[in-house]
Amino acid sequence: LDMSAVMPCSCAEWRRWIRPLVLVLYALLLVAVLPLCIWELQKDKVGTHSKAWFIAGVFVFLTIPISLWGILQHMVHYTQPELQKPIIRILWMVPIYSLDSWLALRYPSLAIYVDTCRECYEAYVIYNFLVFLLNFLSNQYPSLVMMLEVQQQQPHLPPLCCCPPWPMGEVLLFRCKLGVLQYTVVRPVTTVIALICQLCGVYDEANFSFRNAWSYLVIINNISQLFAMYCLVLLYRALKEELTPIRPVGKFLCVKLVVFVSFWQAVFIAFLVKVGVISDKHTWDWDSVEAVATGLQDFIICIEMFLAAIAHHYTFTYKPYVQEAEEGSCFDSFLAMWDFSDIRADVTEQVRHVGEFTMTESRKKIFDYQ
């Protein structure tokens, strides 16, 4: 029995109707949502908060189709799963950031909860960018560790330039992977702590004070994030020539700018609150000056994501993966986005590697002592 005849979706025909279908569904979504937005504006008598929410919504509904189109094109031309799976996960960052910020802007009391999704996905994106680089290198150079061993020794970058360099080869590769992976653990943990602190009334977001939890968590997240990005840069410098075919600089900048700009502008807005530029004198329709700071951050992100969607469309383009001879199933392409087995395997491998390294170092110290 020919299964392709029974399930036409697995044939090449699905490529013809999937894109028009998505466009029609998005048009129906606009028809349903726009009247609700207009009704909200009329109900609230067009206050400052509502105006900001409506303007941000315009950018959101311009951003989402650009991002979804790029994701859809990768699904249609899903010919290199080991490279396109992390790319699709990275492309989801923009619509997730955009929708999250828009909802948080409309419902400030829920901002801390919906932002949890955005902050966790941020770490996930950095990890997937590393996976993208390593998968490409592994395909091109099966003996990646041996190839690294013959590369020129890479010194540490400022501010770690005084530290002894990591040996080229397996040690460098392992430590760079571990450096990125630690952020994918630290960020969700600090996010859960932030939620607990919010429920206990000690979080106090956007207020620089060492009497609240927010300031400490910002410092921890910043150190963890900087070290993860540092490890990515160090790996890129070691394999710069080998990574040239995939043009990694533009891709790295797209990921780095979205992550860093959103983080540091939140810190800058909190600083404006601290020095009184944003004060209780002008809270517009928000309940507090902290809510104003959070709302301003969400509003800016909605605008920035429109620019990020355009950048991602050209930087993470599907065109290098177009191969008409390849006919994959649309279900396989869709389900691949939700397959996290590679992450579980990677985390398990790193934990095992850390355990082996710790045991080896312990034995060395015992023998040295004897």
Automatic annotation (TrEMBL):
Subcellular location: Membrane
Topology versus the membrane: Multi-pass membrane protein
Chief subcellular location: membrane
Any one GO CC term of the record: membrane
Positions of transmembrane segments: 20-41, 53-72, 120-138, 213-236, 257-279, 291-311
Entry superkingdom: Eukaryota
UniProtKB keywords: Membrane, Transmembrane, Transmembrane helix
Full protein name: Transmembrane protein 184C
Species per Swiss-Prot/TrEMBL record: Amphiprion ocellaris
Primary gene name: TMEM184C
